[in-house]
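Re: [ENG-882] Designed sequences occasionally contain unexpected residues at chain ends

Forwarding the minimal case from QA. Structure tokens:
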């Protein structure tokens, strides 16, 4: 039981810090939970409860794929909790539990490295409550995905011959053929990678695999002894380690491939969506470099609120507080520094392990600086994967991971000495002096910037005093000192974390807007940006709007909560056709009619009903003009003379293969002359049409929508969504699961 205490404490620490989300009836709401994750979860949950697969929604973007949106995380097993409790409570509880899961994973990894109880507890609490995770608690997909990082690295380590696990289960294969056959460790690793992929944040998975690959490389090449009797022995050891590296990389690659197969049901539809977006080959350079780590924020490794805090409404640093969040606590930082300084004297942890972690820390910070140095731009241009994702600052996960482990190593190595007492006394004196300066500055300075700096120094100095008192009185009663130290780290990080995640009563998601209307809505791009980033999700202040004011903004995707259709769509992946149409629509009100927009949402919670317009979901148009490319159709509808009631621009579909029909809806129609029936719902690969039960030719109409030719008379038009991507994904995933179970069973019998 004693040995489980670090795991228990690491699991309980986030639950205690965020107790309101567990037992207090509070839920996450600010920013992405209310605008993306909870609305998506509502759509998914409603579909599952109705017994349908959540492939598509007509409530967003004039019709849009839902499952293909990776961050909707339809197949992530923990999300099934939303079938038992309401989605907002499920998401909030799971966010906290993932912090606990991450902390326990780091404890297990610390044990694997060779740390004792104290070091393992420091590692678990530091990582689980690190600002990298807690500042993104409301960014559900990142939070959920990154919780798997330590477990994936732990499983990766089990592939190496340097593993602390029993060697009987981890013998080095004698050939690459054997390496290609997954053993229990490869199977576990593949399952963990698959779960992280299903959590819904590809960028986090990419960074995790980079860290795991680097870990695997070092642990495979790590010398197995400090001294060799001869140069021949050294050469033989080098050759042996190189063979081990190649073998382990093969096993690692097989595990990744297996994970991709297990998650094909999610990844193949997502890849299909990606191909329809402007990010198909690479994201725009300026987009990728957004949220590069601001160099001055490195100072917040010591003083997290040096540039203010959104909870106080006085944050004045660059961009978003949470993207550059780097704080790990003062005591863990001191322990990490001590681990590096005393690396040569550490008899428990290999010098190379400490050097590796320190190198990972430095490289991660360098890459996080993004466009502020030439290194990340070089990676963007020449290294695959780095040109797909926004926010280089998220590379700070490597810093957080490495610094947490270094903190545990330093904590385990820590011992009392007169030299430490001397520096502790100096630290106390310096901290008290800094506190006095901060108090004087806060009392005399009125400008917001120097005032926030002075106020921040007071808090940092107070925690620094406690830090140095702990190092001064160490450890007369070792068990008590260890307990106080771990508790202090928890309090330090907990206070830094809790204010970064505004909570609200769950009734927020049941509020009704002050205005009521029917039909599809639209919010102009400039208005949406103003309301979203200047009034609600302002980076400077968490509490700029009241709950009712937030609901009255009708921001996408809040409208889902009231089952209001919106032509807007707040989604990281939007098709190129949709983006082009919306841009043209903002210049031509007739395209608003074509999109069946009946209501315009204005800033300041104003509603404009389009009573003098002619919106319609269905149009019957006798004549059509055939074009051969998306650009031609976009040019045609962008013309000031384009009339959607008399002109129809058609693009023929290429030869398309379909999968299993999943979603369908029928529309009875009476036509007095042969016409094209135009439906103002977005076209997307996988949709097909039947007229009176017979397959008919589907056209892309007016650049974005769907049309079918219908003869005179009474007919039933049926639209079926039968995406081949989903069918292929199901087949691959089911086969992969069967193979995984068979291999696991066979391996267990061998053991």
């Amino acid at each position: 039981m004693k040995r489980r205490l670090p795991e228990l404490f690491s699991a309980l620490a986030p639950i205690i810090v965020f107790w309101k989300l567990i037992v207090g009836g509070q839920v996450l709401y600010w920013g992405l939970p209310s605008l993306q994750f909870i609305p998506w979860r509502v759509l998914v949950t409603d579909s599952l409860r109705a017994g349908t697969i959540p492939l598509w929604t007509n409530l967003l973007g004039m019709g849009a794929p839902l499952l293909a949106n990776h961050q909707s995380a339809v197949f992530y097993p923990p999300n099934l909790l939303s079938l038992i409790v309401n989605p907002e409570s499920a998401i909030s509880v799971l966010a906290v539990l993932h912090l606990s899961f991450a902390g326990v994973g780091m404890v297990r990894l610390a044990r694997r490295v060779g740390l004792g109880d104290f070091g393992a507890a420091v590692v678990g609490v530091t990582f689980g409550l690190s600002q990298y995770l807690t500042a993104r608690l409301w960014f559900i997909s990142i939070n959920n995905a990154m919780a798997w990082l330590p477990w994936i690295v732990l499983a990766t380590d089990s592939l190496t011959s340097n593993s602390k696990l029993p060697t009987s289960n981890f013998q080095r294969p004698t050939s690459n053929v054997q390496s290609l056959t997954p053993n229990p460790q490869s199977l576990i690793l593949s399952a963990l990678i698959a779960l992280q992929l299903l959590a819904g944040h590809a960028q986090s998975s990419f960074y995790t695999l980079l860290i795991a690959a680097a870990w695997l490389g070092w642990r495979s090449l790590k010398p197995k002894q400090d001294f060799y009797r001869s140069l021949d022995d050294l050469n033989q050891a080098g050759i042996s380690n190189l063979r081990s590296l190649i073998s382990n990389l093969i096993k690692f690659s097989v595990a990744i491939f297996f994970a991709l197969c297990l998650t094909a049901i999610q990844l193949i539809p997502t890849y299909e969506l990606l191909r329809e977006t402007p990010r198909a080959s690479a994201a725009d350079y300026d987009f990728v470099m957004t949220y590069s780590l601001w160099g001055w924020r490195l100072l917040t490794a010591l003083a997290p609120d040096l540039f203010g805090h959104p909870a106080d409404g006085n944050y004045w640093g660059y961009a978003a507080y949470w993207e550059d969040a780097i704080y790990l606590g003062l005591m863990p930082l001191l322990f990490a520094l001590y681990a590096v300084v005393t690396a040569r004297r550490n008899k428990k942890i290999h010098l190379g392990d400490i050097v590796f972690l320190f190198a990972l820390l430095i490289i991660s910070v360098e890459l996080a600086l993004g466009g502020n140095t030439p290194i990340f731009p070089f990676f963007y241009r020449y290294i695959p994967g780095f040109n797909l994702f926004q926010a280089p600052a998220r590379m700070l996960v490597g810093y957080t991971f490495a610094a947490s482990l270094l903190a545990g190593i330093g904590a385990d190595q820590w011992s009392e000495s007169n030299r430490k007492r001397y520096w502790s006394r100096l630290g106390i004196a310096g901290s008290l002096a800094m506190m006095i300066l901060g108090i004087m500055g806060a009392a005399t300075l009125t400008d917001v910037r120097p005032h926030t700096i002075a106020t921040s120094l007071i808090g940092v100095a107070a925690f620094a005093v406690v830090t140095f008192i702990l190092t001064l009185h160490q450890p007369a009663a070792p068990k008590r000192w260890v307990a106080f130290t771990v508790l202090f780290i928890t309090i330090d990080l907990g206070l830094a974390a809790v204010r970064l995640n505004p909570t609200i009563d769950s009734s927020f998601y049941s509020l009704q807007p002050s205005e009521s209307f029917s039909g599809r809505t639209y919010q102009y791009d400039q208005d949406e940006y103003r309301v979203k980033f200047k009034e609600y999700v302002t980076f400077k202040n968490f509490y700029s709007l009241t709950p009712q004011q937030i609901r009255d903004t009708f921001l996408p995707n809040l409208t889902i909560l009231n089952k209001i259709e919106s032509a807007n769509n707040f989604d990281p992946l939007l098709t190129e056709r949709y983006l082009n149409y919306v841009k043209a629509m903002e210049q031509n009100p007739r395209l608003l009619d074509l999109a069946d927009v009946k209501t315009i949402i204005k800033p300041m919670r104003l509603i404009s009903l389009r009573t003098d317009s002619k919106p319609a979901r269905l149009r019957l148009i006798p004549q059509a003009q055939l074009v051969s490319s998306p650009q031609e159709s976009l040019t045609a509808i962008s013309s000031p003379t384009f009339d959607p009631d008399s002109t129809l621009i058609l693009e023929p579909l290429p030869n398309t293969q379909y999968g299993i029909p999943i979603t369908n809806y029928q529309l009875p129609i009476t036509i007095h002359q042969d016409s094209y029936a135009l439906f103002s719902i977005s076209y997307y690969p996988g949709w097909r049409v039947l007229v009176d039960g017979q397959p008919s030719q589907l056209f892309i109409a007016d650049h974005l929508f769907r049309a079918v030719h219908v003869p005179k008379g009474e007919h039933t038009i049926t639209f079926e969504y039968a995406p081949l991507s989903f069918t292929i994904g199901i087949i691959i995933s089911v086969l992969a699961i069967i193979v995984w179970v068979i291999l696991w069973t066979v391996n267990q019998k061998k053991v």
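QA comment: On inspection the terminal residues look reasonable. The chain has 27 helices and 17 strands. Proposing we downgrade this to a documentation issue.
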